[in-house]
# Entry
Amino acid sequence: MMTRQLHRVLLITVSLIILVALFGHVSVAQTNNGRTAADFMYIGLGARPAGMGGAYTALATGAMAGYWNPAGVAGMNNNELLLSHFSWYQDLSLEQGSGAFRLSDKVGLAVTVTYLNYGQINDYDAAGNVVGNLSVYDWSGGLTLGYLVSDNVSVGITGKVIGQQLDQYSATAVAADLGIQTHFERVSLAAMVANVGSKMKFNTVSEDLPTYGRLGIAVRPLDESLMLVAD
# Structure
């Protein structure tokens, strides 16, 4: 019984990994000179993943899973809240928040928001005189649902709205993230695809979202005191 279940888990994982690899290839091969809109969606969530170089796909749980892997929202023991403020260079500021909620033994829900303000940008007239300030910011909001398929496997999906504001011009798009995690005694495997959705359209110009895929592995060769991770 366990052998059959293990084979099923591995088949699901390998299948999704292949899909992610193919998706990543398609994304890289897209035209438009490699440009995408809403590049702020590459900015990660949480101090721990940042300290690990972003290798967090296989380890994502709770509030941070809303960004790193929606499958990690499933099977939580407690509710979580994460709030982050980061002052960047030249008046840029980044605000992030995520709340994850345990709905049942198998189901988890998370809400994630991001707001990136580009600070004070002068607006000039044709003569080069400052006539005011431009309002420039990016934002996104996502709702994540994770489900524990078995003791070893969880899957998740995030639906999100992404927006950009450039003074009087604005654009919005809708997108989704898909993810899976598998956990064994000493090894965790994961895969996810992010920002699969519509294009961002400013006035008459449309650009693709930054769609990408990630594969992750975490290995505990000895015990919880040592962990090797890679994305």
Notes: Residues 2-230 form a domain with the Porin fold (CATH 2.40.160). The two ends are 31 Å apart (CA to CA).
